[in-house]
Amino acid sequence: MLLDGCPLLDEALLAVDELVVNALRHTRSGQPDGTSTGELTRSDGAVAVTDEGAPSEPVVTDAGDDPESGRGLRTVSLLAAG
């Protein structure tokens, strides 16, 4: 597997998962015939997701204790800073 032995594999996969889910929920990528592309680069640990855009820019929010959503970009931000 391409990422065997990657020390941050779980974190990288979680970040890509969060970004892809956000792309499907909040952009035109989630529409019929929409597309998104996820990329992991082993050499530098870079993670990228490209989507088809939305009417507004994504914003990191502070979700309360009970909401079931609203933590994805905060999670990615914390993983990137880690």
Care to describe what's here?
The chain has about 80 residues and is α+β, with helices and mostly antiparallel strands. The chain is built from two helices and two strands. It has a two-stranded antiparallel ribbon with strand order 1-2. A hairpin with a 4-residue loop joins strand 1 and strand 2 (about 45-50). Helix 1 runs antiparallel to helix 2 (about 70-80). The protein starts with 8 loop residues before the first helix and ends with a helix. The mean pLDDT is about 85.
Defining traits:
82 residues; 2 helices; alpha+beta; globular; single chain; 34% helix
Order of helices and strands: HEEH
Structural class: alpha+beta
How much of the sequence lies in strands comes to 5-15%
Radius of gyration, CA atoms, in whole angstroms: 14 Å
- Kindly state the mean pLDDT as a whole number? 84
User: Strand order across the biggest sheet?
Assistant: 1-2
Q: What does the largest sheet look like?
A: 2 strands, antiparallel
Low-confidence stretches: none
Coarse morphology: globular
Number of strands: 2
User: Portion of residues in helices?
Assistant: 25-40%
Distance between the termini: 24 Å
- How many separate helices? 2
